[in-house]
Amino acid sequence: MVKRTGPTNYQLKELLVQLESKAYQSKFWGRIKEDLQKPTRQRRIVNVYKIEKFARDGETVVVPGKVLSVGDLTKKVEVAALTFSEEARRKIEEAKGRALSIQELLQENPQGKNVRILG
Question: Distance between CA atoms of 74 and 92, rounded to whole angstroms?
């Protein structure tokens, strides 16, 4: 039986250390930490059309995984994710939204208020 070692990506390890302290203060960041600790194959992958379908205009959305570029986006939303494809980042910014890393969102919103998890 293979022993699970956790993520090997250095930036992801640093993010998980930051989220560890926030997880005690906020259930939201605890949930994000749990999702990011999953194996790569089980992480969430969200296309832009799902953000268009489920997010409201002006809302902040977190994807604990990768955002891909299938579909169009017309709403102005802030999207925080582990990674973005270049085309997805371009589509979000063309819709006057923001593409953030999860670390940036953690610094801007340490309590995790008014944020939706998508995926």
Answer: 9
